[in-house]
Design a protein that fits this description.
- By secondary structure, the chain is an alpha+beta fold.
- Helices cover 37% and strands 21% of the residues.
- The two termini are 34 Å apart.
Amino acid sequence: AEAPDGEAPFSLPIVFTGTTPDGVTLAANISARSPMVHTVEPLTPTTLAPMTRILATLYDGLVLRDVPGYVRLRSAARAQANATITALGGVVRYLAHQYRMNVIGVDVGASSTTLAGATASGEFLPALFSQGGVGPGAGYVLRATDANNLIRWIAATADENMLREYAIHRMTRPRTLAATELELEIEHAFAREAIRMAMRGRGARLGGLNPIDLALSTGGVLSNVSHPALAALILLDGLEPKGITSLALDVANLAGMLGSAAYLSPRIAADVTDADALPLLIGPAVSLAGKPADGEPALRVTLQRGDGSEHTQEVAAGTIVRLPVRNGEQVLLSLFPAATVDAGLGMGQQARANEPIEGGELGIIVDARGRPFAFPASPEERIAKLLSWRRSLMGTGGH
């Protein structure tokens, strides 16, 4: 690849999947252009692990090495191998202590789902759905809940047989990835239900985490979404927070290492966090409970910008919207809910922020779908409703 004047040329790494002799031939022929040729065995639906390992190594060595504080973080994390609940618990307790807020971490895996909460006062509230996930754990999720609880989240025509086929496929071929739009819809539906079951499972202590000031999502399912709006919807649908919650996405999957490092050196964890290298802020979400009278908006919200200008918007019940706030822009937020709607302070209680609130990738979200969610009985209307929610957050056609 061409490099700017005065800089060393950049060698683009090449990953070749095939036989070793063919890999040697390829490397010899292109050695002048790229000396970085990595050969892995031919891929099949059950042999993705070698490709995954080499890509993870390349990503670690070529991309993450430039993240501020990453080298020290990696070194500290390697000094102590922790289970997911331990590492995730470490990072949420660190963030809760550092910023004096209630924090929940969410990691939906292939075989298990881990939630870890920490309060501003230092209390640790774990919740582990050890057998339920979106891969081999999909079968357990399907057995533990009604199929209709999964179908309600799928913005496409689906039935129980499709869910069973998905679960069997992921159980017998655990390394496969969602290959179609429908498979991704099903995977995200399983993620939502796994989070909901972890929240309410035996031994879960997250019921006392109210409000949730920060929800941090990590792990492959949530970190690898094609649009942050999809992660936002999974978190809002699974956690059902009330009041104002900042949604953050651990796109680099550093949360586990940060949690491990925090046990050994809080200063390293602080350096990485202060460099804004850990989360992508999706945005604050204002989640409403209750239902307004017919024809009445659920909420009237006013934004006061730094230049003194104001924006006022009414939000209809049953909708989810993005307020026009730029990423990184700080505004003062005033909330005027209907008499039968709770914006976090009680039914009909107004809220005026004393401190500015910062917009994220999606600006500021207002979730006026109510708690619990109500879905239309008709499959066609339900799908249309799901797509309308998605379009509102994505600003696209919904996929």
